[in-house]
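Changelog-linked ticket: S-adenosylmethionine example.
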Amino acid sequence: MTGQRDRWADLTGGQAGEEYAQRFARLAESGHDIHGEAAFCAALLKPAARILDAGCGTGRIAIRLTELGHYCTGVDVDPSMLAVARRDAPTQEWLLGDLARLDALGLNPGFDLALAAGNVIPLLAPGTEPAVVRQLAAALRPGGLLVTGMGLDAAHLPLSEPSVTLAEFDHWCTQSGLTLRQRYATWSGDPYDEGCGYAVSVHSRPTT
Ligand SMILES: C[S@@+](CC[C@H](N)C(=O)[O-])C[C@H]1O[C@@H](n2cnc3c(N)ncnc32)[C@H](O)[C@@H]1O
């Protein structure tokens, strides 16, 4: 661990797993599509791809991607979130760990796609973001994709103000050898414009 407390832990006290899962269960029951992130990623891949769900939380996305024929490894630092994932999909791989020290988990690199959805990047511990992006980039195979979704204003974040700008994020990606391929305003692929409150970004690792 880096020793720094992530913003998610500050917000939730590390006890949010059940409540978070119930929130999505209620959304699904009321007819909302809770699988937009998984559908977005699946459209970029052929089964069976290796996917790292970085900050997997309760496993909502990794479980869906597994149903779609992919191999998913979920990593999260919050035991209350992982407990739900382990209960709901006991045969899937769920690892407790800090994304800033992903190398310490001894994962085989060469993932086809690493996903950091649900505001994982803005909710990291302050100052650890460049290290996390570096670790995610290093986990990818050449040509592999980093897919992220992040709020850029308070309306799209569980924070009172944005913690990370898109320019900073793109800079950390560039420093880590990644290239921006696509950017959207939603997981449905709506076009991104300057000033959008949310960004779904696809960066790639060079093939050579
Ligand atoms: C809002 S939740 C999103 C969960 C999931 N990606 C989703 O979209 O349903 C943010 C998650 O990021 C995780 N997280 C924050 N910092 C982390 C870190 N340094 N290492 C691993 N997970 C982290 C939190 O524990 C939390 O589960």
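Closing comment: Example verified and attached. Strands lie at 50-54, 71-76, 93-96, 111-116, 140-151, 179-184, 198-204. The domain at 7-204 is CATH 3.40.50.150 (Rossmann fold).
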